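Fold it.
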Amino acid sequence: MEELILAGKVLVNGQPATIGTRVNPDDEVKVGRRQIRFKLSARLPRVIIYHKPEGEIVSRSDPEGRTSVFEKLPVIRSGKWLAIGRLDYNTCGLLIFTTSGELANRMTHPRFEVEREYAVRIMGEVTDEKARALTRGCSSTMVRRVSICSPGRAGPAAITGIASSSAKVATAWCGGCSNISACR
């Protein structure tokens, strides 16, 4: 397409297009003598909130043959479901699915700084010193150890509260939020 544009064979509203020319649905676009028609869908993107139980994978295919969340979603004729975020195989929680790539991108790309909130169970004893350190913020290396964020993102994740469990196995629940631009 770029070669056609540079050769002056692409017209937008009768004027030669340049690389980066923006086109609206109302514009008349011609490539050579052929007019390009835009198909606009009046249908809004579909969105589903799904409670993922433990034991399902957030992937379209799995070499181990585990059940996929996509097998549980309604079948759609055109397009496909896109997961906004993901959860580990042994984790349960809410997931958002959409048919809109734009919506998925706006929810997941770090530049849009969408804040996410997590509840993390820590096995073992959380001493007062560890609790103070957690509430001051987690480095990305600490966050990766408790599986809040994917590796490779730098920045702090704020822990907003810690609650102890009375179970025989010592556990603590950390509720917090992380800025997606800091770690995702």
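The chain has a mean pLDDT of 76.
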